Amino acid sequence: MNRKYWIVISAIGFFVVISVALYINYLKIAPMPSAGPRHLFKVKEIYPTKPGGREWFIDMNNPTSDGIFDPGSPIKQRADGSWEINGNVRPGNKYEDQVRMTVGTPAGQEQWKNVEITGYARVLSADSNSDDLDWYARGGTHSSDVPCEGTAVKGTISVDGDVSWLKEIWHTGGYTKPRDTHSVTDTILNRWIGWKVLIYNINDNKAVKMESYLDDNDNNHWKKVSDIVDNGGWYARSSNEEFYSAGCDRPKDYIITNSGPLVTYRSDNMEWDFADLSVREIQPPQ
């Protein structure tokens, strides 16, 4: 082969190498294409929405655009359309590594009461296997400045797959011990799960029914994992002196039948992704 031929072959090879390098570099810096919703299916509803009742579904393209959803911490969208949160402090937040995403009630509208709270989550890291995801309702602001607003019924699932219920009669001296704690799945770390918490009054508003459901394989197949009733006798664990110091005028086993302006998605010391959050005012079964 003559020298001219080798020059042409070398030039072509050099061009190919440069082109490949430029393409790889482009892939590293180019913005990810916008993603559609994570799920093509409509997330299953356990009970129907109350006629005329409120419904809220997160806008996965712009979660805070409706003025109702407040993530409480910075969030970042991922390539699959989900959002990442880790509880880092933003201006106005008091504590670090605490996620408190709230769904509020606009002025003049009915507060959340008999609710079905849904969310999909993927826990990326946690300080402990006992750290949990916690969906709750039936209260307002949780602050020592307004302790009696801090009522809540809470359905939890921990990193190691344990579920339980917790009640908070006031913030922070009105916590009960957990109820119905048991294991329902393997670790939820680094995989998507769906978690549903249902809270509704029964017995002419004298008792509260609590149900929780797990979509363990992220495929819209929901399994009931807890079903309990609070009809009294579920006491705050604090001393009488501490419990009654708040002046909330409630018994120590207060049944939280009241409504509240906020529904909250909560965690401590965890980093996680979330998607397809919703809250609905349901028509409880008869």
Tell me what the structure shows.
The protein is mostly beta strands and about 290 residues long. It is about 10% helix and about 35% strand. It has two helices and 15 strands. The chain has helices at about 5-30, 240-245, and strands spanning about 55, 70, 75, 85, 100-105, 115-125, 130-140, 150-160, 160-170, 180-185, 190-200, 205-215, 225-230, 260-270, 270-280. It is globular, with a radius of gyration of 24 Å.
Distance between the termini: 91 Å
On the 0-100 scale, what is the average pLDDT? 89
- Percent of residues in helical segments? 10-25%
Q: List the helices and strands in order.
A: HEEEEEEEEEEEEEHEE
Proportion of β residues? 35-45%
Coarse morphology: globular
Major pleated sheet = 8 strands, antiparallel
Cα-based radius of gyration, to the nearest Å:
24 Å
Count up the helices: 2
What ranges have pLDDT less than 50 throughout 5 or more consecutive residues?
Answer: 14-35
Which structural class should the secondary elements be placed in? mainly beta
Q: How many beta-strand elements?
A: 15
Key attributes of the depicted protein:
11% helix; 2 helices
